[in-house]
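This is your field. Have a critical look at the following sequence-structure pair:

***
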Amino acid sequence: MSVFDRDDDDGLSRGARALVALPERMGESPRSAEARLDEASGLASAIGIDVIERLAFRLRDPKPATLFGSGQVEQIASAARMAEAELVIVDGALTPIQQRNLEKAIDAKVIDRTGLILEIFGERAATAEGRLQVELAHLDYQAGRLVRSWTHLERQRGGFGFLGGPGETQIEADRRLIRDRMAKLRRELEQVRRTRGLHRARRQRAPWPVIALVGYTNAGKSTLFNRMTGARVMAEDLLFATLDPTMRQISLPGLDKAILSDTVGFVSDLPTQLVAAFRATLEEVTGADLLLHVRDIAHPDSDAQAEDVLDVLGEIGVGPSVDRVEAGEGVPIIEVWNKIDLLDADARTAIEGEAARRDDVVLVSANSGEGVDGLRRLVADRLSTGDRIRTLSIPLVDGAALAWLHARGEVLGQEVEGERLIVEVRLSDANMARFGGR
């Protein structure tokens, strides 16, 4: 149950009225204030908050007590009263002291960007693993914020109470309980990592490559996933519509089969607690044979969003460097420029010209299906890059090994020598490694 499903005296219900306040620092972000306010409003809408007012403030000298200057705080308080806002969302990071002081000055609940994103993740996590990851991130974030309750420690529910709920007035937090709970969560997540490692090892021995979709939230990954797999993964026009990873089998030209993985969307200023907590999920990305970086090419901040995605990939050790890929240390990346159906004629012509100058870009509309067949062909070509003719010797009785080679490579010839079968096969380096690990 989410905090929005309650209607108690201290909680908020869906449709709660909110004001978004953006603290702007010179040179802090390449995005415009309007684009950043749009994204913050989208995050709020993702969990049913109704943004009534949006304000941006230039911060020359951030105040330790309130972040904003005194005049700006008064302006926020006045606007919140005029809009009858129950909640003020600060699209930036607040210290616990700043959060408390702002709540007193504005006389409304205040959360920052990290708190909002954690609330979304808390409501969206569907699997047991996702719940563990979000709760650990929440505890890490809230450890120093004694103005919130810890009642969620005793039960599992959607959302984590940033926006109110039972126990809001219970300031006393049992620090030992929090530490013990975090230690228990870390142990459980470590078990998840070990289990994922075993699954990944089995997939490495299997004859099927793994392709991971990555990209900024709402770039269209899940729509593309559904288009390529025929699945029905949640694909709505919402930020963080997908949280838990999903994997499906797909067919590609010239390949028997492959595994496509849909992953959580990235976002600018992704809370460090979430990057750490979701490392187990993102390890699926590090173990992939190929990444499809899905971009909303019609979005005005598409370039900045792409940089944010690459930054997160760098944090988890999956850099896009060509040198690293050639050295066998990185994961090859194809950029999928999605939503070309939303471009006007002039913009589309410009985008097509830019894409034509690169060999790692494909234009698609996941919504209409345009370009998806070309994407399948490019993926198949990339996965077969590095194929070489190899001569292998396998036991005559090992029919499974021969079937494996037929499924994953191109068997060019075979002959019997005693109790061994000498097979000439065209096989990629990755699959040669898989074959050796069988």
